[in-house]
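Researcher: Can you fold this with nicotinamide-adenine-dinucleotide in place?
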Amino acid sequence: MEKILDGKAFANLLGQNLKEKVKKLKDEGITPHFCVINIGDDPASKIYVRTKKRRAEKMGIIQDIYQMSADTKQEEALALIDKLNADPAINGLMVQLPAPKQIDADALLERIDPNKDVDGLTPANIGHLWMGNHFVEPATAEGIIALLKHYEIPLEGKNVVIIGRSNIVGKPLAALMLEQNATVTIAHSRTKNLGEITKKADVLVSATGQAFLVKADMVKDGAVVVDVGMNHVDGKLVGDVDFDKVKEKTSYITPVPGGVGPLTVQFLMEAVVKLTRRQNK
Ligand code: NAD
């Protein structure tokens, strides 16, 4: 009975509109321009950075990649952020995570000018998010809310269970779900009796990085399931959800790949353009 929530198709639809917006900005002599700082050699990060670059090119956005070596010192990374903050030609910047051990990633995020914070991860923008007066939001969380709205899936009064409490997915999604008047539970690695909690969810979101964590007996009949996980198993990309079995119980479900991933990249691009427009009034 499942219906697939086609994140890829929705991202492409949004992409058409964004391309038009970028074209209009270019007609006014403005080209959105953002920078990704990647420190070290994490193979997944390198793929994500390239995926963003391809999407940016498709949208007409300039993306510079600052690839820093694995032994980069904290001061060197901070100096680069300061330089990009001060450069009026740069509309946005982000640090690709994870960073190597010697780097205090939180301190880097804190140093980004909140007006150029395309990821919505500076303390100022996280504060705005929880206060309900945000301008940029972490892209994955924003993408999930937009996808559910696109498919006209109501959230008001619904029990939403989010598995995962990271700063980039679980926590910001909880803030946005509350804003939609959902009743939100966040579960995590120390949660007891996970299945009993997830079974109460009208909308279940998993963002753990644990392949096949969510089994069919943890899901209520007719639930909406959103799978954020990206895990490599036997050379294949899979989510957190045991898709083939779980889909039999759901009313809607996102696939991996082709679900949340494309929306994350698209909403990052949307943030770049939003900030560019605001900086140029
Ligand atoms: P993270 O490692 O920072 O956080 C994982 C969270 O999952 C933690 O809060 C932890 O408590 C919880 N968790 C781990 N094992 C658990 C278990 N057995 N039971 C319950 N909770 C458990 O990860 P993250 O950065 O939030 O990313 C999570 C996953 O989502 C990863 O697979 C990542 O690749 C993926 N991701 C995908 C997108 C996308 O666009 N699709 C974007 C960001 C992250």
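Model: Folded with nicotinamide-adenine-dinucleotide in place. Residues 140, 163-166, 168-170, 187-189, 191, 194, 207-210, 213, 228-231, 260-261, 264 surround nicotinamide-adenine-dinucleotide (CB under 6 Å).
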